[in-house]
Amino acid sequence: MSAKVPRRQEITSSGMADWATLQTDIVGIIIKKLAIPDYIRFRAVCTSWNHVCKDVSYSPRVDPWLMLPQNPHPLGAQFFCIPEKKNQNIRLPSTASFFGSVWAPVGSLNGWLIYFSQTYGTMQLVNPISGSQIQLPPIGRRTFAKAKLLEMNERNFIVAVLYGDEKGYKITRKGSNNWSSVESKHILDDIIKHRGRLYTCDMYGTVELWAEPPRAWPDEEVTHQWRFRCLVETPAGDLVRVKRQSQNKFAVCTLDKGTFSWVETDNIGDLALFVSHYNSFCFPAKDHPNLKANCIYFIDIHNNLCAFNLEHSTKELVETLEIGPGRNDHYYRRPQRDQLLWFIPSLK
User: Fold this and answer.
1) Alpha-carbon distance 200 to 233, whole Å?
2) Which segments does the entry list as coiled coil (predicted)?
3) Apex CA 272: angle with CA 270 and CA 275, to 5°?
4) Which residues does residue 146 pair with via DSSP β-bridges, in sequence order?
5) Of 61, 100, 304, 319, which alpha carbon lies 20 to 30 A from 82's?
6) Over the stretch 312-337, which tens digit does the pLDDT of each residue have?
């Protein structure tokens, strides 16, 4: 007597298993273990699997990626997936215009990248996974220090631009045909939207809440040699300030909701911070291979991917990045390590 075929998995005339008939719950378990690029290929296999992928309860794994400098050939954008320690190549929409020494990535949030063309003085938002594009109002050809995507959802988006030699910032949002200018007392290093309000960090380390009446927290120490400060929101909704104290050392403070003061900490629990010139974010390390909790991931002066352990104040080499020669074209010049920005892929 022949063995029974497992339920919902049939044998084709060629003697091969018909994987399209796998049970839905089994397919769902597989989906949850896939990274987004593998998920996209998975759902293209057959109609049955694609139908299961449309169920919102079955979502692929989300990993932090590091966007690497542009390749010399227009094949798309290259990312380094930290948990899997391998590169991912994604073809962007309109790649001919993006990689003709015209467009450069200058920011990222919620699966979207900000691209700037100094040649044309224009900026646009691009989702490399879905292929969606949003054109922003013209901003001019002047080089800026940082562009921040403060909000991105189905209802609205907000983009701010900071200048390294000018006080204040410019801001635009969905439905706007221009950029609004906002003044500040000093040149700003970073800006973030947290709990519906804007916070900025200036060149002296002062963090300011943009509300009435204004409130500011001065930094304890003014340093410029390794000047890097950023504001990050945690998954739990807390606000974190990260300051670079030396070449390979960082300090972290959290905003106490009760006293409204900054409290330095060497323990952020099961979280990892990813910091760079253009964007920074917080990410849960649990269930992600090769991710270390209570660490700050950054690029050192040798273009190595490193992790700074907050508890022990030690630096660890994570990966030596093969990023090739730095860009030095007429349109966009900046230090090689500042070409790298963090990115979390999204299907939305």
Assistant:
1) 13
2) none
3) 165
4) 162
5) 100
6) 999 999 998 876 544 443 333 343 45
35 strand-pairing partners: 61
**Alpha-carbon gap, residue 110 to 126, rounded angstroms:** 11
* C-alpha distances out from residue 141 to 124, 227, 261, 279, 335, Å: 14, 26, 39, 21, 19
Q: Which two tokens stand for residue 100?
A: 């003709």
3-class state of residue 7 by DSSP = coil
Compute the C-alpha angle 216/147/123, nearest 5°: 150
Give the model's pLDDT for residue 30. 83
Residue type, 344: I
The CB density around residue 118, as the number of other CB atoms within 10 Å, is 18
Smallest CA-to-CA distance from 270 within 280, 257, 282, 259 is with 282
Q: Give how far Cα 230 sits from Cα of 250, 274, 296, Å.
A: 11, 11, 12
Of 318, 340, 311, the residue nearest 84 (C-alpha): 318
Query: What totals of helices (H) and strands (E) does the chain contain, helices first?
Result: 4, 25
What tokens appear for 322 in the block? Answer: 């093969």
DSSP code of residue 187:
-
Q: What is the mean pLDDT of each run of 10 residues along the chain (348 residues)?
A: 44 51 76 83 77 73 86 68 87 54 82 89 90 92 91 93 92 93 92 93 91 59 70 96 92 92 95 94 89 95 92 94 52 49 89
- Domains of the chain, residue spans: 7-61, 65-322
Class of domain 65-322: mainly beta
- Among residues 298, 343, 338, 337, which one has the least CA distance to residue 316? 298
